[in-house]
Batch of 4 targets.
Target 1
Amino acid sequence: MKADEDQTTVRVFIFAGQSNMVGSDSKIEDIARFPPFAGLEQRQENVRFSYCIGREDKLEANGWTALQPVDKVVGPELSFAREVTRNVKAPIAIIKIAAGGTHLGGDWNPDEPSGFKLYPLALEQIRSSLALLDQQGIKYRVEGFMWHQGENDMFEADYMANYGRNLKNFIACWRRDLKAPNLRFYIGELCTKTIWGMDLRPRMYAISLGQNEVTDADPLADYVPTSHDGVEIGGGAGLHYHYGTLGQLEHGANYAQAYLQAIGQWKAKTRTLTEWPYPAGSRVRLFVLAGHRNMEGERAFTQDLEKLDGKSQLLNDDPSVACRYSLGGGYKTSADWEPLGPFGFYDTFGPELSFGATLKKGGVENIAIAKFTHSGSQIIDWTPEGSEAQSRNLYPAFLQFVRDSVQQLKDRGHEVELAGIFYHVGENDMSWEPFRKDAPDRVMSLVTAVRRDLEQPDLKWFISQQPPTDHERVNRVDVMADIAKATSGDANLVHIKLNDLPPEREQLVIETAGIVWLGERLAKEYMEHR
C-alpha cells in the first residue's frame, strides 16, 4: 500500500518559525469577520496538538491536546488542519515550535545554536511528543515540515547572504535527526504585502533567493507563495509587519493546498463555459481589470455578498460574459475562459461581478473581462523598469496576459475592441512616503509602456484611486492631487477619484459592499467616457 493510501497511520506535521508562524497580532475574536474560516476558534477534537511557543516566556503543551488557539492567537495550523482533514481520511497531528524575532543563522542553527537555541529545543519537543505516541501504541509517520521564517535574518548581513546555505543545512539536519530522509519541507514565502515588503525590498528579495535556491534544487522541498494573503492593518500609516488574523488563516490554507497538491489530493474547483456566448464573427469588447488588494477583493466574501440587499444575484454565474484571470501574481489562474462569477481564492470576489452586471444593464453588449491582480504588489512592480527585486516584476506577465486575452478572442473569429484597462492604484504604496511620492510617475510609466508595447497609443485607461491613508507620516505628499496632475493632460486617461466610497472599518481595505460599489462605479465611468 502506498503511504498516501494509508488511512490509519497518524500523519504528523511540524510547524516552525518566527512571529508570522506564531500568529502575532492576530485575535481569535476576529475570525468571525472572515466567513470562510468561521468556527476555527473552536477546538478541533480530531487533531492532536503539541506545542512550545515563545522565547523567554514559553507557552507549552503538557503532552498532547486537541488542536485549538493558544493564548487567543490564530496560527496557520488551525486552517491547515481543517482543510487537510476535509480532504484526507487519515488522522493528523501537529507539533508547533515558534518564537518571534529569531534567526535561522543563530537561534535555529543546528550546528551552533545561539540566542534562544531553538533547534535543540524543537528537536526535544518533537522527540518527546513522538515518544508519547510510541508509549500509547499509536502508529505515526512524520509527514511534513512547514517553515516560515527569514524576516530577522534580513538584518544580519552574514545571515542574509547565507540564507540558502543555512536553510539547506537546516533541512538536512532535520532529516538526519528525525531519521526521515524523505521528509518533505514546505517553505513559506515572506509576505511582501507587509511594510517590510516596501522599505526592506532588497533584503526580503535576498531571503527569497536563498529559499528558492533550496526549493529549486530539492525535489522534496516546496516554495509556498503567501504574498497574496491578508496583512494586519496597523495604526498610523496603515501597514503592519504581521499577517494578522485573516492572513494567518489564509497562510494555513496555503500550506494545506501545497501539501494536498504534493500527495495528489488537491481538488481545484472548475468553472467552464458550456456554450460560447458571442455570435460567430461578432465584435467583442474586452475589458481588462488590474491592480492590487482591492481589485483582487481581499476582504470581499461571497458569504457577505449573499446577505447584501439586492446584490445576491451577482453570485450566479453569468454565461453571457466570458472571463479569464490571473490572481495573486499567478497563485490562481483560469485554465480557459469561464462564465463571469465568483472565482477568487478563499471565497472572495472583486469588482468584476458588479462591473459586468452594470455594463449589461447599461446596454453594453458582447462583454469579455480579463482580470490580472496581485494584492502583494506595489506600483513599482507593474512598471517596465521594475526594481532590484526582479522576481516581483509583473510587467512582462501583465503585458502577455493582455496580449493572450486579445489573441484568444481573435482565434475564435472575433474582431476585438480593447475597450479599456481599469487599474486601481496600489493601496499599500500609500503607507510609505517614498512610494507615495513616486506613485504618479510609476502609474504613468505603466500606462505609457502598455500603449507602446501593444501599439495602441490611444488605448483608454481608467485609473481609480481611493482616499489614501490619512496620517502625518505620509500626508506631506498629496498623492491624489499629484496623480490627478500627472494624468490631466491625457485625453484617453480617466482619473477616478473615489472620495465617496462607502464607509469601511479599516484603512486601505475595501469590504464587500464597497467592492460591489467599486465595480458599479467603474462601469458607469466607462459608459460616461466611451
Target 2
Amino acid sequence: MLLRTFLTLLFFLACNIAGFSQEYLTLTGKVLDKKSKQPVPYAHIGIPEKGIGTTTGFDGAFQFKLPKAFENSKLTVSYMGYETFSQPASSFKNGSAIYLQQAVNQLTEVVVMDKKAIEDIIRRAVKNIPKNYSDDPSNLLAFYRESLTDDSLRYRYLAEGVLKVYKTSYENEKEGQVGLVQGRKINLQNPLDTSFNSGFASGHMAAHRFDFVKNREDFIDETYFPYYKYWIENITTYNGRTVYIIGFDKEKEPTSSGNTKKKKRSLADRLTGKKQGDSSGSASARMKGRIFIEKDSYAFIRAEFEITKEGLRKGYDYPLYVGSWNANKYVVNYRKHEGKWHFSDALREGVRSNGGQYANEVKITEIFPEKGNQIPYLERLERGNEFVQLTGKYDEDFWKNYNITPMSEGLSESMSQYKNMLKAQEAFSAENMAAIQQQRDSIEAAEIQRKKEELARNQEITQEQLENVDYVPESMRKVDNVKKKFRKTKFSLGLGTHLISSSSNPLTINYFDKEGAEILSLTDDIPQRDFEVLPVGNSTFTSTKTCSCASEMPLILEQHLQGLVNRGWFAVQYV
C-alpha cells in the first residue's frame, strides 16, 4: 500500500514537472460552418492520439495549448454531424478560421424500426461496454467550472479549477476520486468578500457523477425499458462513422417488454437506494432526451437529457442532483483514445426553486497513457466539499500551460462587467486621483507663473516685486478662465416611480482627462421593467478651472458606478 501511494505521488509530481518544464505552443482561431459561415460552438479540438484537447466557445473561438513536442501531430477538430477536420499543428496559423463541412444524414435507412428493435440497439450497446470502454483504471487531467446566478439571472460567483481525476474501470462499481491541482474563485456580487459559501457540494465530482455509461442511468437500463418509449430521431456521422440518434421519453402506459431478470445494481442504483426491477410503482421514467450510439461498434458516444417534472419531485437523486430543483439538463460526451472510449466532458444546467441558475461543467483535457493509480488519501476532495471553499484568489494569468474551456456568453459578459468594475476602482482610487490632482495642480501653477511673467512685462515691475505677487488681475483671468479659485459643488438625490413598461436599454458612462483621452468607459444594460422606484442622482460641479472637480469626484462617482454595476439603473449626470 505504501509503495502504491509512493508511486502515485511520483506520477503526479512527474506530470507537474513535465507540464512546467516543456515548451508550449498556443493555437488560437475560430471554427465555422463551411456553408453558413456561422460559429460552431463546443466543437472538440485536440490531438486524439495524445489524449489532449479543449473545446470552442459559444462564438466558435478557441485557445489550445499544445506541448511543442507534439507540434508535428495532427490537429483534429470534430463535432457531431460534421466531417472531421485534420491538419498538422505546425502548419496552423494563429487567427485562422477552420471550416467544417456538414455530413449528409441517412435517416431513410431506419425509419421502419419498431420499439423492440431500438431497444435491442441500446441493449447491445450496454453489452459492449466492457469492449468499448476502458477495463483499466485511468488518470486524467480535467478543467472544472461552476457558477450561480440570483433570481434576476445576475451571476453571484464563479469558481474554476484544474483537477486530477482517477477513474475506475467501467466494470468497477466504485466511484472514482478527484484531487485539486489549483483553483480560483470570485464573488461577482462583492469582489472584496472571499469567504462566501456556495451552498453546493459534490460539484467537482462531475467527471464521475455525469458519466451515464458507467452509472448505467435509467434510460439505458433494460429494467426500465417498459417505462420508456424509444424512437430513431435521426442518423448522423461522427469522425466518419455512422451514428444512431435515439430519442426517449416517458411511456404513457408501461409495456411488458424488457428483461426483468436480476442483475448487478448500477452505481446510480446503489447510491440512490433504487431497487432493481421494482415494478411496484416506485420505478418510472424520470428522464427524456437523446442518446447517440455509433452504429459499427455500438458505443455510447453522447447523451442529451433532462429530468422530467415527475422526476424532480424526488429530492435526493445522487449522482445527478440533490435538493429542490425546477429543472436539470445534461450534455455528456465521450472521446476515443487508443482504441477505447473515455469520458470526455459534461455540462449540467439547473434551475433552483427560487429561479437562480446553477451550472457546473467538466472537460477532460489530458488522458495519461499509464494504468491509473489512486489519488493519495490526503489529496482527495471529499464528495461533501464545497468547491468554492477549496479555491483561491482570482488571477488573470492563472492557468499557465493548462488547457481550459471558454466561458458561456452570459458568464463572459458578467466577467466583462467585473473587469470594468476593477478598472473603475483603479481609476478612481485615492492614490490615482491624488496623482492626477497633483499633475493638474502643477499645470495650473505653471500657468499662473506664465501669467505673472506676462504681467511683469506689461507693467514693468521688478523680479522682486513679481515674487510677491500672489494673484492675477481680474482682467487677465477673463482671458482664458484659468485662475478663478471659487468652486461650487451641488448634489441632489430624488425618488420617482413609473408604471409604463420600459424596454431594455444600454447605459454608458465615459470619463475623460483634460486632453480628451478616455480614462474609463462603463456600459451596462437597463433591464426591461413594468414598475420600479428610480433613485436619480444629479451631481453638478461648477468651476472655471479645467477639471477642478477632481478632488470631489471620487466618492460621488464611485457611488454612482457601484450602483450602475450592482443595480443596472442608476441615472448620473455631470455638468
Target 3
Amino acid sequence: MADLINDPISGTSIPEPGKKSHPKRIRVVPDSLKKFRDITALAAAGGPPEKIAAQKKKGKLTARERISYLVDEGSFQEIGLLMESRCTDFGIKDKHIKGDGVVTGFARVNGRPIALFSEDFTQLGGSLGRTHADKIANIMDMALEARMPVIGILDSGGARIQEGVDSLDGYGEIFYRNTKSSGIIPQISVIVGPCAGGAVYSPALTDFVFMVKGISNMFVTGPEVVKAATGEEVDFETLGGSMTHASKSGVCHFVANSEPDCFRQLKELISFLPQSRYEAPPAHETKDPVDRKILLLEKLCEVDPRKPYRVHHIIWWLSDDHRFLEVHHDFAKNIVVGFMRLGGQTVGVVANNPAHMAGALDINASDKAARFIRFLNNFNIPILTLVDVPGYWPGVAQEHGGIIRHGAKLLYAYSEASVPKVTLVLRKAYGGAYIAMSSKFLHGDLNFSLPSAEIAVMGPRGAIEILYSRQIKEAKDEERDALRVKLAKEYSDKFASPYQTASTGSLDEVIEPATARPRLIEAFRFLSNKRRPGTHERTGNIPL
C-alpha cells in the first residue's frame, strides 16, 4: 500500500503525489469547528428546558417549530443567530442569550421566497429589546429591497422593561418600516401568544392578522389596568382574544383552531398573493371548465328581492374548483370579501351578503371592504364585485357613528382602484349604495346584470308609497294591496329595470345567468393588460 500523508484542511489521509491508493478517511474535527457547532446548537435550542416545558404546557409551539410548520423543509436560512442584547443592566448581558428572543431569516413557502421573524417566548418572555428590534428591522429592510413578503410570528411579553426607552425606540423602528413597506410588499402578522401595549400597532399596520383560539391575545392595556382605570372586570379572552378581535374590533382577519391550522391557512393565503407590487398575482392551473354553467343563478332570478340567502353559495359556484378563501369571516358579515380564482387567475371578491342585515352597507362593512379593495389595488389583483344591496343601514347610531365619513372610504377605494374591475348585479342595487358598489360611473370597467335585477334610487315598494301616496290612501281597503302590487310593478318596469339602466350606459350588458362564469372569466382576460404591475401610483394600505 502506498505511503499516506494527512491533508491538514480536509482531515483525510491521502496518498503521496504520484502514488495511487484509496484514501482511508480519518475524520478530525478542528477545535474551532467544534466550538462553532457547540455555540450554534446552544443558541438554536432556545430558552432553558423548564421554559420550553412551560410553553408546551400551554399548548404552544416553540419559535423554531412554528417556522418548520410554515416553510418548505430545509429552506430556512437564519440571520442573526448569535446576536446578543447590548443591555448592561440587571445582568442581562451576563446571561449571553443568543438571538435575543427572536429568530429571523429567509425561507420558501410553496417554493416562493419569504422573509420572516418568530419571537421566542422561552427567552426573556420574547420581550422586545433593542437588539431584538434591530434583528426584525434588518429582516424587514432586506425583504423590502428583495421585494418579497414578510411574515411576523408574534409571541411576546411586550417592551423589555430592563432596557427602558431603548425598547420603545425599537418599536418605533419597526412601525416605521411597516409603514414604508405598506403597499409595496405583503405584510402578514401571526399572533400566537400575548401581544400587548405598543406591540399591537405593528400587526395593525400589516395587511393581514392571524390569531389562534385559546392562545392569542391583543390589547393596549391589560385586564388589571382596565379594572384600575375604569372599574370594569374582564378576562384576557373577552378583552383581547381571537374571537373578540375577529367579530367586534375587526383587527383579526383569520381565526384558527390550532397553530398547525393557522399555518395551513397562512400558506393558502400566500398562494393568492404576488411577491410585491411589481408582480402580477400567481396563476394556477385548473381542470374546472371555463364554460361551466351556473344554474343556481337562474334560480336566483326567481327569488323575492326581500328573501335572504348566503352570497357565499354564489361565490363558490362561480370560482374555480369551488374554492374561496374568505377574509374577515366574522366581522361585518353584511359584506363578504376574499380571494378566488377564475380561469386560473387570482381575483379579489367584494359581495353584499343578504343573509346578514339584508346586505346593507354600514360603518364596519364600508371600512372592511374599502381596506380590502386598497390592498387588491396595491398588489395588482383584479376586483369582482357582486351586488345585492338595499342601501345604507339606517339609524341614529350609524349617523352619529359617522356613516357618511366611513361610507365615503368605500367610494374613495373603488374610485382610486386602477386594477381591472368587473361588477355583476345579482338582484337589487338601490340608492347611494348602488353607486358605492363599483358602479359604472366610479369607473367600473365592465358592469353586468342578471335579468331580474332591480336598479333604482330606491326599492319599488318604498318609491310608490312616496310617489302615489294620495292614490293609495284614497283606495278602498280591500283594493289597496292589489293597487300597491300594480303600482310597484309599473315602477319597477319603468324605473328599476336593468334594461332601462343598460339603455343609458349605466350597465354594459344584461347577461344570461347560467353563463355568468365564462362571461366573467373572459371579461378579466380582456382586461388583463389594463395596467402593468408597478406602474401605478404608490399608495400604502393605511388601516381604515
Target 4
Amino acid sequence: MKHSPLKITRIVLAILIFVPLLLFCCDFAHGLPRSFHALAHLQFTPALLSGSVIILVLLLLLTFLFGRIYCSVICPLGVLQDFLAKLNRGKKKRNNKRKREYRYTKPYNILRYSLLGLCIIFLIFGNITLLGWLDPYSNFGRIAVNIFRPVLVAGNNLIAWIAMQMHSYSFYHVTLHTVTVASFCFAFAALLLVAVLSVWRGRLFCNTLCPVGSFFSLISRFSLFRVKVDESKCTHCGLCAKSCKAECIDSKKGEIDHSRCVVCFNCLERCNKEHALHYTFAYSKPKSQSAPAPEQVKGMNRRAFLATSTALAATLPLLPAWAQSKKEIDPTKLTPITPPGSRSLKHFTERCTACHLCVTHCPMQIIKPAGFNFGIEYAFKPHLVYYEMAFCNYECTVCSQICPNGAIERLTRDEKQTTQIGIAQFEKSRCVVFVENTSCGACSEHCPVQAVRMEPYGDTGLTLPHVYDELCIGCGGCESICPVRPVKAINILANETHQTAIRPKEEKIEEVEELDFGF
C-alpha cells in the first residue's frame, strides 16, 4: 500500500504536539521546560475562555482553509482516539478474517448540535460545566493527570525499588497526593467512553458528543480544500469508506460529509484507483462533473439550516431545569479556596474546565480536584487543600504561569505575596495550649507574613495565637503545621473574592558592635 505524503505529514505533526503535551501533563518530577505549556494554549476551549484572539483566528482560519485539521493534528484527545482505534483494527482474527472495518453512517445532527447549543447557551449565562465535561482537551488533561501520571509514578517507584536492591540510588521514590477517588473515577469513565467509541465507531465522540468538533463542523463544510471524489475514475469499491474513521464517506453515492471529515487522509491511502480521491481546492469544477443545480444547492443548505436550528431550539426547554439546579445548591457549603490569580470564585468557576494542568505542576501538591462537595458546577475543578502538611509556597507562581484558560491569571512574585485568597480562623477550644495547658506556637512560626502572632494567655505564662486579618494571605502555613486532629485548631476560610493584604513591616536589624578577641 502506497503511503500518502499528506497522511505522513499529518501523523508527524500530530506526534510533535501530542507527545510533549502528554509528557507535560504527566511530569511528576517537574523536569520539563515550562514553555511546553504553550501547547495547551493552542487548544480551542482554553483560547476561547482566555480571550486569545490570535489563537482563535488562527484555528478558525485553518479550518476554513483545510478542514478539521484541529481535530486530527492539534487536539490531543483526537490523537489518543486514533491510537486506541489503531490497537483494535488492521489485525486478523484466528479464522483469517479481518476485524470489523468502518462503514458509512448517517450523522446524529440533532444530538451533536443540541449539545453544542447547550454549551453555547450555558456559556452565555456564565456556566461552563457542560463544556468542561465534554471539552476534548480538558478530558485529555484529566485522563493524563489522574490515570497516566499515577501509572508512570508506579513505574518509577518500581524502578527505584529495583535499583535500591542493587545499591543504586539514581532513582527516588515519589508519592502523589493529588489524585482523589472522585477525580480518578471521572477520568476513568471518560477514558472508557472514549476508548469504547473509538474502537467501535472511530471518531464517533468527535462527531457526536464533542462541542468543539461540532463547532468546527459548521465551518469545515465550507472549507476551501477538501477530499473530493472523481466520479469518472471511482469504481464505488467501498475501500475508502472502510478506512474512514469518521464514517462520512458514502461510496455508493460518491459523496463525502465534510462536516464530519477530520482530514485524516486514510481514504487517499486506501483508494486503489489513482486520483479517484484527491485532496484539492473544493470549488474547482472537474470537466467530468456538472455543477449541481441551484435548486439542489438551496435544498441542501435549507436542510442543514433546519437541522441546526431544530437542534438549538430543542435545548431551550432545558434552561428552566438548569436554572433550578443552580438554586438548589446548598449556600451553606464551605467555599473552595481557589488558587492565587483566580481573582474570585465566580471568575474561576466560569473559566476553569478542570484540565488539571495546575494539579500536575503544583510543587507543593496542594492543588487537588474537588468532588461534588461544592456543587455540580464546581465538580472536579481544582481547589487548595492544606490539611496534609503542605501549604502554598510564599514565592511560587507556577499555577498562574501555566493555566491555559485564563482561570488563573499571571501574577508576579510581589503580587502573589499580597494576594489574600483566604483568612486564617483560630478556634481556641481546639488548641493544644487551651486543651492540654502546654505551649505550642507552631502556627506562628510557620506564618511567612507574621499574620499569626503568639500573645499572652491570662496568667498561665502561656501564649495563644492571634490572627491579624489584614496581614493574612491564606497560604495555609499555619493550618498545615497545626498538630491538632482530626479538626485543626486553625483553618483557612476562603475569600470568594480575593483581596489585597498589607505587607508586614520589616523589622529593623540593630547593628551589634563586634568585639575584638584578637583573632
